[in-house]
User: Fold this.
Amino acid sequence: MWPVQIAYALRELIHQANLARDQGLHTIPDPVRDELITRFRNGVLVGLSDTTSHGTRPGQRKARLLLEVLRDRPGDVLRFAHDLKVPPLSGQAERDL
Assistant:
């Protein structure tokens, strides 16, 4: 159930970022953020171990490529969890462009 674990961790990080922003904080409290990032990373690692190749099933290659990006670029993917000025979703950034 690694997709569920990754999605939960990301949704909860976004929720915690919104709560912290509403409270006037500059970042998510470290213990909360660190626990959720650990869940996220563990989900990614399990996903990578379940998808050891790019495979031939529909969607398997895309899933593997996404997991590799999540593993290799955590600073970009999780930047919003460390800096509340960064939006967690790109919708507003795309509209601003």
Residues 57 and 83 are 38 Å apart (CA to CA).
